[in-house]
Amino acid sequence: MNKDRLLSAARQELCRHGFEGTTLRGVAHRAGVDARLVSYYFAGKEQLCSEAVRLPWDSPAAGRAALAAALTHRPSAVRLSGALGDTLGVMYRGAGARDPDLVAAATASVLLGLTLLSCAGVPALDPPGPGTTAAVSRYLGSLSEGPSS
């Protein structure tokens, strides 16, 4: 359970401070554990933050943390972009989308945009309202339709 608390605390710290501003001591303090415990579970800040934002995200906080880390840390941005592109590309190729790479890029843009707005505290998107969810679903559905006969 301590490891889960540390990962949760790391997500909160990443959202608040980005990768560069997140410290192992800050994560330990937020988790309510001794700072030495962080080193027991993780080789360092890079590993802790990587695990905190690893796909699949188990909560909206994990998505926000991944975006916050990506905004302030180039390796996190590369990991996030690659993971989203790979995951979405496989999904859309399997669904027979007209242009799976384009649809994957558009989907990733929408998801990252909504997450960024959520990080900025836009209340209608935290959590997304029913209208937002329906509109995004319709838009993504129209992009992913296979070739018309």
TrEMBL record:
Q: Which organism is it from?
A: Streptomyces resistomycificus
DNA binding happens at which residues?
23-42
Where in this chain does the record put each HTH tetR-type domain? 1-60
Protein name, per record: RemR protein
Q: Which key words are in the record? A: DNA-binding
Highest rank taxon of the organism: Bacteria
The GO molecular function terms of this record are: DNA-binding transcription factor activity; transcription cis-regulatory region binding
